[in-house]
């Protein structure tokens, strides 16, 4: 095994400060990054198994269908870098078919990253793996062991959709700078589609997305000194057409107060906490966004229904 672990010891953002400042805003907000505690990450894996949430299946189908073309575009001996790699499941379609010179999974959770990267190292014993524990949304430098040429960033799952467009451009620009002169980015982007399909995907019948959203309040209730009637809130997600995004909210069933570490927040019936945006881009809209970050579109692959897109960008 050629497994190396680089721990940059990222600071976890303070939940307490973020909750107080988010709930002081009008409308009230909580940042989606706080969804992903152990329980939240587990529920997110379950969302990916829901029939209404088409994203993982359609992206996998595109990658499987066009694997040969994608590999031909990436070329031999590349160094694949995956920000927010999590379980490193999605990279396997490439690793099963090609031999990159190196794989660099990055994640903020050291425990999770080490376990999944070691797992991968066992399955691909000849592949050098440099796992980097870092918050990829904050400034960082890649370890010097990662060669500066033939860098391919891999950012699947439409995770970029959870950034507001300005932040998305900033993130894409940072990746471009890190990719180097001959670098590229293979990225999965969810597209605009009939509103009913989008609304169903984020309001699944089994209520898994609802559990995911409500888990944020449970987490705050468990980790902070607080009084929250979690059952006093319900999940609802809807497509905001002018903004081109799904919005997830936690709506209050009633007039109520929520207390966190001595601060009290009052809710009117129907008032919400806005917890997530998930932007959807047409192929041309995403190309324009990427261009603003200095990338050039090299290739786009889509499924037959055009529900999802996989873009290859070059510098
Ligand atoms: C992680 N991210 C791309 C998901 C999305 O579709 O925006 C998060 C999610 N929220 C509810 N369902 C899925």
Automatic annotation (TrEMBL):
This is Methyltransferase. Residues 16-314 form the Histidine-specific methyltransferase SAM-dependent domain. Signal peptide: none annotated. GO terms for biological process: methylation. Keywords: Methyltransferase, Transferase. The keyword Isomerase does not apply. GO terms for molecular function: methyltransferase activity. InterPro entries: EgtD, EgtD_Methyltrsf_superfamily, MeTrfase_dom, MeTrfase_EgtD-like, SAM-dependent_MTases_sf.
């Amino acid at each position: 095994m050629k497994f190396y672990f680089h721990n940059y010891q990222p600071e976890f953002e303070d939940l307490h400060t973020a909750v107080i400042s988010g709930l002081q805003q009008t409308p009230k907000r909580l940042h989606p990054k706080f969804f992903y505690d152990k329980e939240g990450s587990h529920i997110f894996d379950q969302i990916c198994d829901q029939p209404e949430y088409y994203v993982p299946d359609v992206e996998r189908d595109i990658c499987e269908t066009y694997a040969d073309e994608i590999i031909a575009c990436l070329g031999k001996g590349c160094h694949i870098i995956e920000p927010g790699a999590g379980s490193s499941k999605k990279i396997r379609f490439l690793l099963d078919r090609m031999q990159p010179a190196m794989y660099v999974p990055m994640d903020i959770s050291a425990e999770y990253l080490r376990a999944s990267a070691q797992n991968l190292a066992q399955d691909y014993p000849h592949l050098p793996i440099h796992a980097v524990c870092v918050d990829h949304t904050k400034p960082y430098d890649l370890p010097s062991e990662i060669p500066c040429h033939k860098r391919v960033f891999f950012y699947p799952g439409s995770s970029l959709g959870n950034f507001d467009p300005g932040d998305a451009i900033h993130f894409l620009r940072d990746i471009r700078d890190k990719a180097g002169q001959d670098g590229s980015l293979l990225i999965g982007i969810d597209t605009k589609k009939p509103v009913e399909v989008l609304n169903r995907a984020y309001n699944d019948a089994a209520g898994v997305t609802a559990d995911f959203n409500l888990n944020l309040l449970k987490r705050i209730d468990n980790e902070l000194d607080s009084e929250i009637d979690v059952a006093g809130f319900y999940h609802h997600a809807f497509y905001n057409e002018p903004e081109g995004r799904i919005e997830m909210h936690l709506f209050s069933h009633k007039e109520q107060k929520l207390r966190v570490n001595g601060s009290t927040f009052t809710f009117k019936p129907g008032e919400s906490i806005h917890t997530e945006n998930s932007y959807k881009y047409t192929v041309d809209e995403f190309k324009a966004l990427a261009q603003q970050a200095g990338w050039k579109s090299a290739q786009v692959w889509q499924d037959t229904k055009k529900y999802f897109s996989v873009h290859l960008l070059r510098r």
